[in-house]
Amino acid sequence: MKTSTRGLLILAVVLAVLPLLLPNSYYFDVAIRIALNAVVVVGLNLLMGYTGQISLGHAGFFGLGAYASAVLTANYNWPPFAALAAGAAATGLLAFVLARPVLKLKGHTLAMATLGLGIIISIAINNEGQWTGGPDGIAVGALSAFGIEVAGEKQWYAVAAVLLLAVTWLALNLIDSPVGRALQAIHGSEVASRVAGIDTTRYKVRVFVLSAVVASIAGSISAHYVGFITPNMAGFFHSIELVTMVVVGGMASVFGSILGAALLTLLPQLLSAFEGWEVVVFGAILMATMIFLPRGLVPSVGLMFSARKRG
């Protein structure tokens, strides 16, 4: 059995067993938020970890999905899943239009361009108050289909868990395909990839669009789950949080993405005991992780086990 298949089965078992161990609605809420964050981070890791393209504006795509669902359902009475699909399609189209000029850049210039994109989306959401509610935010209706409404923490957990499993399966299959090998070749060297006959621009555009659409879908689901959204979810600090989840969990590691999302979603809850010092302790933990585990948690631990076996 492939390592990726085994990992996916383990993830499915963990997600199936976890609801039996969660004692109350608070823990269900944390688990749901972890799963939804992990969905975005898995998609972002395909872009950053496997293809080597930096994005500091991914929260903008997350926010576009959230606001598309909120505005279309609240103001135009669209069915929730139709609004979700429209938001994902619009986000994918925007990402496709912007990908070619943006992804021609490299290094810090690419980072600044994606940062600017995220800031523009955040400003637009803030300023278009007649549609988005502006800085005050907007209420989002329940998620429903065919007259059946998702209600209660167990149903929401099932939605988030299924979505995470689907995105993880998609990412693992993509990585094991010729497309995935082309993405990793681009990360290694774009020049060598072109010499080998790989259309680097096409592949970079595709993975950028895919990661944006995944973020949009997660944003739509999150909006319905939370029930009220503000422009902060599309802001710069949320983008940095998503990138940090990728880096801490492990670049070019799907399961590292999930672990990174889990840790960085849990840490603020666990550090609440350090009254007034939460941010300092949080920063110290991140620094220590990068110093002692520079590849991220999952790849670094994997290398340690491999070295012990060889020894």
UniProtKB/TrEMBL annotation:
The entry's localization annotation reads: Cell membrane
Major place of localization? Answer: membrane
Q: Which key words tag this protein in UniProt?
A: Cell membrane, Membrane, Transmembrane, Transmembrane helix
Q: What membrane topology does the annotation report for this chain?
A: Multi-pass membrane protein
Indicate the transmembrane segments per the record. 7-24, 30-47, 54-72, 78-98, 110-127, 156-175, 207-230, 242-267, 279-298
Name a Pfam family for this protein: BPD_transp_2
* Keyword check for Transmembrane: yes
One CC-aspect GO term: plasma membrane
One Gene Ontology molecular-function label: branched-chain amino acid transmembrane transporter activity
The protein depicted here goes by the name: Branched-chain amino acid ABC transporter permease
Q: Which organism is it from?
A: Pseudoduganella rivuli
